[in-house]
Amino acid sequence: MLRFILTRVSLVIPTFLGVTFLTFLLIRLVPGDPIEVRVGERGIPPERLLELRHELGLDRPLWQQFLDYIGGVLQGDLGVSLVTRNSVFSEFVTLFPATLELAALAMLFATVVGLPAGIIAAVRRGSVFDHGVMGISLTGYSMPIFWWGLLLILFFSVGLGWTPVSGRLDLLYYVEPVTGFMLIDTLMAGEYGAFWSALHHLILPMIVLGTVPLAVVARMTRSAMLEVLGEDYIRTAKAKGLAGKRVIGLHALRNALIPVVTVIGLQVGTLLGGAILTETIFSWPGVGKWLIESINRRDYPALQGGVLLIATTVMTVNLLVDVLYGVLNPRIRHSR
Amino acid sequence: MKRILLGAGLGVAATLALAAPAQAAKTLVYCSEGSPENFNPMVNTTGTSFDVSLPVYNNLVQFERGGTKVVPGLAETWDVSEDGLTYTFHLRKGAKWHSNNDFKPTRDANADDVLWSFNRQWKKDHPFHKVSGGAYDYFNDMAMPDLLKSIEKVDDYTVKFTLNKVEAPFIANLAMPFAAIQSAEYADSLQKKNQIDKIDQAPIGTGPFQFVAYQKDAVIRYKAFEPYWGGKAPLDNLVFAITPDAAVRYAKLKAGECHIVPYPNPADLEAMKKDTAINLMEQEGLNVGYLSFNVTKKPFDDVRVRRALNMAIDKKAVVDAVYQGAGVPAKNPIPPTMWSYNKEIEDYPYDPERAKKLLAEAGFPDGFETDLWAMPVQRPYNPNAKRMAEMMQADLAKVGIKAKVVQYEWGEYRKRLQAGEHQMGMLGWTGDNGDPDNFLHVLLGCEAARPGGSNIAKWCYKEFDDLVLQAKRTTDIAARTKLYEQAQVIFKEEAPWLTVAHSVVHMALSKNVVDYKMDPFGIHRFYGVDLKQ
């Protein structure tokens, strides 16, 4: 087992280095540097530009900048934002809980709705329900997040007034962030009103961000269930007179869940990617919105650090899923 | 770990004031478009960051609400010496500083604070010079390092600025956001605690609103500063709810989650006009979008060609199509809201036949080939340069001119235009200090016509330049106005640009917002604004 884990971890290292290099290079390939972007029409005298570039370390050769960056990263230093002059890591840590909270709820939503929908669709294969679920999930999967988010806002927030348009908490409340997770912070503060408000604010972004994973989970569950339902042991279980619910819930679902768990784990990447758009629509103060602003301002350190930390999160989760899968399914860990 | 109730009013904000009791605190929610870099206007260049710091600070002098006229700020009065080189400011007594958990001021604003604030930007060895990046773009752009000879404290309430040369717009420069006054006492206390970065994160000023808290990328909170020297603001609380998407800002306004919304989507303007719950305000921006002709290149060295081009393009059609109601055709290089704007000037008519005749006279009966540069990005004075270029291209083809549209990445684009690589190039300008010098000298003077300068027509015309330079050295506004009016006449005759448009800026407000004034500089100011309850 330990060997299996070590092999998996060693595979992460090249990915990590690759991500570091790519983010460093890609943002520099975007035309316009942080100073040029800031000065706009008025321009900047060449001497002053040189001086400022020197202060920011942008005048050194690219390889040297990269080595410095890697050196910093290995020592846990992601540098300082060119715009706010705050440490990139501390900015990320301030904003990441908001993204995590949203992503976790979106995943919960996707699982709670997607799993049963997939199971029922499989059991009633070919029925109206099956076609309905598959059709809807295909639509959900192809839905542009931006459009879908605005549609929900116009319908539920502006039209019906059921949910707030955007933000994380009603302006009535001000809860000092401790964990950064609004639901937890409001409860710790004993502010139940604020807790409800936070929950209320989560509904629409959760649905929007959870739509793609929901579609994936529903389709995956359905196909895994269908495969399992055709197995001999299911027929045997039915033949020995077990109740239908028991056959499906106990015998079929357990085995069908293995690929579904993997898929859920892999959705973490989709969720964090989708968070960038969702957060922009819902004015959600998470890392997605922060990254978009960093791109516009060509804030190299913030962008590099942010992408690296998100990639690290995704890699860690994938690693955990891999390991967990190995635990669940011994065939995997012995075959490698 | 406690909930801070910022006056009962924040609750009111949530449900919008209508149902609140009469004496409840008034909280105005402004749905701002982005996150600020920090809370110091000295080190920033964006409207977003000026918006968040202006409630907190004062300058020596400031622009009147909704105008470009300079009025007293922390300086009650000022005298200019005969030779125009010395400015003596007499400071207001009793201007109180804000306080926060870490800082309780022991004195009012005085000359030390003024010296401290200018020296921070000016002197490279100042202990706070490097804080927040220390770029001070505006201080440098307005040529303050060249202009300033010395700043001296005469006594606690008198400061003397000595200049190296006469510069009439100097007073207007001091009203610009970068010239804010920070507290030297606060800086000292931070320095002792080794927390100098905090000066721009947890700002202390003398302005009408006191900074309360900033939740990164989400909400900025202020409360009215009771002992403000200009009198307490009618509002009790001011909240910025950061909302980057324009469609969502509109939705928030409709749902009653904010009172004021900047930068609406042009596509939403019609609906906003019809909405009885919304008050849509508009104002011509302090800007101009133009097409410059590089007079150092053939055939644009010939004034007949430049005039012909002015008549060959159907300006009204271009403006209508590109700005979609958010722009007005421009005839002068300065916007109509600016003093000295010459109303008498007549624009070139759209007349392709006369254009053809002029071209023939200039030796181009069959037209010629040229390039036509267009910005790759949306700018405040031009929402879609590419589309504009295509329309112009079609108009020019009608008089036989074949124009090729050229685009570069934005930073590169500006650099190449300033180097004078183009034949015809689009650009524009947004005013900084409301002074005509900021357009006429900066964009059309001989000094700026050098390679790399911002006069991208590279047009150096002595008669024009003399007038503008003379106006720069004259402090009397009436005399300056005459000079600038005349300069505009020469500009029109010589036609180094095709002046395209001044964009119109829109703001959407909830009907219960009272006395909001749009600012010509495009900054959003909330002192003096009230809410009907």
What does this entry look like structurally?
- The complex is a heterodimer of chains A (336) and B (533).
- Chain A has helices at residues 2-29, 34-39, 46-56, 62-74, 88-123, 128-142, 145-159, 182-188, 192-229, 232-239, 244-281, 287-296, 300-328, 330-335.
- By secondary structure, chain A is mainly α.
- Chain A has a single domain, classed as MetI-like (MetI-like fold), CATH 1.10.3720.
- In chain A, helix 5 (88-123) runs antiparallel to helix 6 (128-142), helix 7 packs across helix 11 and helix 8 crosses helix 9 (192-229).
- Chain A is globular, with a radius of gyration of 24 Å.
- Chain B is an alpha+beta fold.
- Helices cover 29% and strands 20% of the residues of chain B.
- Chain B has helices spanning 9-15, 47-53, 111-122, 137-141, 144-147, 170-174, 184-192, 246-254, 269-274, 303-312, 315-323, 352-361, 385-398, 410-419, 437-444, 462-472, 477-494, and strands at residues 27-30, 61-63, 70-72, 75-80, 86-91, 148-155, 158-163, 209-215, 219-224, 237-241, 260-262, 278-284, 287-293, 327-329, 369-373, 402-406, 424-430, 497-510, 513-514, 530-531.
- Mean pLDDT of chain B is 90; it is low at 1-22.
- Classes of the chains: A mainly alpha (336), B alpha+beta (533).
- Chains A and B meet through helix 2, helix 3, helix 5, helix 7 and helix 12 of A and helix 1, helix 4, helix 8, helix 14 and strand 17 of B.
Distance between the termini of chain A: 11 Å
Poorly predicted regions of chain B: 1-22
Q: What would you give as the CATH superfamily of chain A?
A: MetI-like
Largest interface: A-B, 59 and 61 residues
Report how far apart the termini of chain B are: 32 Å
How many strands appear in the DSSP assignment of chain B? 20
Overall form of chain A? globular
Hey, roughly how much beta strand do the residues of chain B contain? Answer: 15-25%
Report Rg of chain A.
Answer: 24 Å
Instruction: Tell me the overall shape of chain B.
Output: globular
Low-confidence stretches of chain A: none
Sheet/helix structural class of chain B? alpha+beta
Q: Which fold name is given in CATH as the topology of chain A?
A: MetI-like fold
Please describe the biggest sheet of chain A, giving its number of strands, its sense, and whether it closes into a barrel: none
| Topology pattern of chain A, helix = H, strand = E | HHHHHHHHHHHHHH
Measured as a percent range, the helix fraction of chain A is over 70%
| Count of DSSP strands of chain A | 0
Helix- and strand-based class of chain A?
A: mainly alpha
Averaged pLDDT of chain A, please?
85
Helix content of chain B: 25-40%
